[in-house]
Write a structure and sequence with these properties.
Elements (H helix, E strand, L loop, with lengths): L1 H54 L3 H9 L13 E10 L5 E12 L4 E6 L22 H5 L2 H12 L6 E5 H10 L3 E5 L3 E5 L4 E5 L2 E5 L1 H9 L16 H20 L8 H11 E3 L3 H11 L7 E5 L2 E4 L8 E4 L1 H14 L4 H14 L15 E6 L5 H12 L3 E7 L7 E4 L5 H11 L3 E4 L9 E5 L7
Parallel strand pairs: 1-4, 3-10, 13-14, 13-17, 15-16
Antiparallel strand pairs: 1-2, 2-3, 4-9, 5-8, 6-7, 11-12, 15-17
Length: 459
């Protein structure tokens, strides 16, 4: 009986082992099938994703656009994005002043962007003869610390209809520059200024150098030296020079932030933004533009300053900047509307303009001394602007407006008012270089705009 029981026990154990062995064999046979199915699903999903990336333009833009759910038609539906950018600092009395005021725009379809500086002394009242410091645009925010008040003031001055704003505190600006490892920048002049009331001490030498956050703050807040000297006139004296430096440094920051290695610092950058940036731009809006902005070329940036006049001709002797309404309207049209056209539309427009060039336009019949020419210096060399002006005026042309923009590679001669081909070719021959483009604008105050590029340096 005992032996029989032992045999039965052995048989049960053997049967159990046999079943376990069979189950293991089944699992071994089943697992490759499951693995193959999972692999196939991943390959299909990966193939679909890769195809969508391809349809969205490929590269980093394609990956990001696909990741946020875009298709090949999404970008076409996006309008130019515009926002107000404010830099806040605290003065000696503790007031929060917006010493940096800019309107920024970006068009994902044309890959063009704009920075328009608003002078901090811009008058916001109704009667400049009785202007007070309280009516300067840089004091608007300090009244109630309401960004909408500044938006309303800027919209009134520019005629734009901005709804978004980004406010950056000084502390956040410093931390951002440090987070991206500093910014290499060519400081235009020696800067030596001290203000004990604001605990502001600026001591920078001219020349290209790596600026950390502290030095970057010194750079963008500089207006004049302790001895009263400031930027040279051709660069833009005092506040005009500071606004130019701010715009050019912002471009340097964008270039530095967009470097691949800074992708790994995104968390730190976002932490800085969360603590020091105030904005009403929500994620749903931002995510639509980010995929295309990552490949933005800063050479497609056009910068300018609100046109107007500094004056203290009022009853209380307060210096204010009074915007020129007519010139401002023209500049806004050129910066934010004439440039806001996809390349296909621009090409179509050129065909029409070329047909009309030989027509009977009153502009086309003008002599070269009657043609109003605007020159924008994008060579990166300040003296080139005056050289171009001198060459054209010596040849009998009339230069009515000049300005500066960030460096661009090619010189472009833009036909704004149906100028004759002969005159345009004469301008090209005079400056020695340039590509002629028809960009007719009925609201333009000049007949021809010349954007000098780096190729002008080697003509």
């Amino acid at each position: 009986m005992k032996n029989n029981n032992r045999n039965k026990g052995k048989n049960i154990k053997n049967n159990t082992r046999t079943k376990q062995t069979m189950n293991r064999r089944k699992k071994k046979r089943v697992w490759p099938k499951v693995f193959l199915i999972i692999l196939l699903i991943l390959l299909i999903a990966g193939g679909v994703f890769a195809y969508k990336v391809y349809k969205n333009g490929g590269g980093l833009t394609g990956i990001l656009a696909t990741a946020v759910g875009h298709d090949e038609n999404t970008k076409k539906s996006l309008e130019e994005f515009k926002c107000l950018v404010l830099g806040i600092s605290t003065d000696e009395e503790g007031a929060l002043l917006t010493d940096t005021i800019m309107v920024a725009s970006y068009n994902p379809n044309t890959q063009k962007a704009t920075l328009l500086s608003i002078p901090r002394d811009t008058f916001t009242g109704t009667n400049p003869a009785k202007a007070t410091p309280y009516q300067k645009i840089n004091s608007v925010y300090s009244r109630k610390q309401d960004p909408q008040d500044v938006l309303d003031a800027v919209n009134k001055v520019t005629g734009l209809n901005l709804e978004y704003y980004v406010i950056v505190k000084t502390e956040g600006f410093i931390k951002l520059v440090d987070a991206i490892g500093g910014v290499t920048f060519n400081v235009p002049i020696d800067m030596d200024y001290d203000d004990t009331h604001q605990d502001l001490h600026i001591h920078l030498k001219a020349g290209e150098q790596l600026l950390d956050g502290d030095k970057a703050e010194q750079l963008v807040r500089f207006r004049h030296n302790n001895d009263g000297t400031s930027y040279p006139e051709e660069y833009g004296d005092n506040d005009v020079g500071r606004m130019r430096t701010q715009r050019e440094f912002m471009m340097a920051v964008i270039k530095q932030t967009a470097k691949v290695e800074n992708i790994f610092k995104l968390g730190e950058i976002l932490d800085v933004a969360e603590e020091n940036v105030i904005t009403n731009i929500n994620f749903d809006v931002a995510k639509d533009y980010i995929p295309y902005a990552v490949e933005f070329n800063t050479e497609n940036l056009l910068t300018a300053v609100l046109p107007g006049e500094n004056t203290n001709k009022n009853e209380v002797g307060t210096w204010v900047f009074v915007a020129d309404e007519e010139e401002t309207a023209q500049l806004i049209q050129e910066l934010f509307y004439d440039r806001d056209k996809p390349e296909e539309e621009a090409t179509e427009g050129n065909t029409t303009n070329n047909t009309n060039t030989a027509g009977t336009s009153s502009v086309s019949t003008k002599s070269k001394s009657e043609i109003k020419i605007e020159i924008i210096n994008g060579t990166g060399v300040s003296k080139n602007l005056q050289l171009a002006v001198d060459d054209l005026e010596d040849a009998g042309y009339k230069v009515t407006r000049t300005g500066n923009t960030n460096t661009t590679s090619k010189t472009i001669i833009m036909n704004k008012k149906n100028v004759s081909g002969a005159v345009l070719e004469g301008i090209e021959n005079t400056i020695g270089i340039g590509t002629i483009e028809d960009t007719e604008s009925s609201s333009s105050k000049v007949d021809v705009t010349i954007i000098l590029g780096r190729d002008y340096n080697n003509k």
